[in-house]
Amino acid sequence: MAFPGQKQCSLAILLPLIILAVGISQVWSRKLMNDDEASMEERYEEWIIKHGKVYNNDEEKQKRFLIFKSNVEYIESFNAGGDKSYKLGINHLTDITVEELKASLNGFKRPQRGSTPPTPFKYANVESVPSSIDWRNKGAVTSVKNQGFCGSCWAFSAVAAVEGIHAITTGQLVSLSEQQVVSCDIHGRDEGCNGGYMEGAFQYIWKNGGINSDANYPYNATDATCNATAEAFEVAQIKGYEMVPANNESEVVKALAHQPLAVAIQASSLHFQFYSGGIFDETCGYELDHGVTAVGYGTNEAGTDYWIVKNSWGTEWGEGGYIRMKRGIGAGLGLCGIAMDASYPTA
Ligand SMILES: *[C@@H]1O[C@H](CO)[C@@H](O)[C@H](O)[C@H]1NC(C)=O
Ligand SMILES: *[C@@H]1O[C@H](CO)[C@@H](O)[C@H](O)[C@H]1NC(C)=O
Ligand SMILES: *[C@@H]1O[C@H](CO)[C@@H](O)[C@H](O)[C@H]1NC(C)=O
Question: What does CATH list as the number for 15-84?
Answer without folding.
Answer: 1.10.287.2250
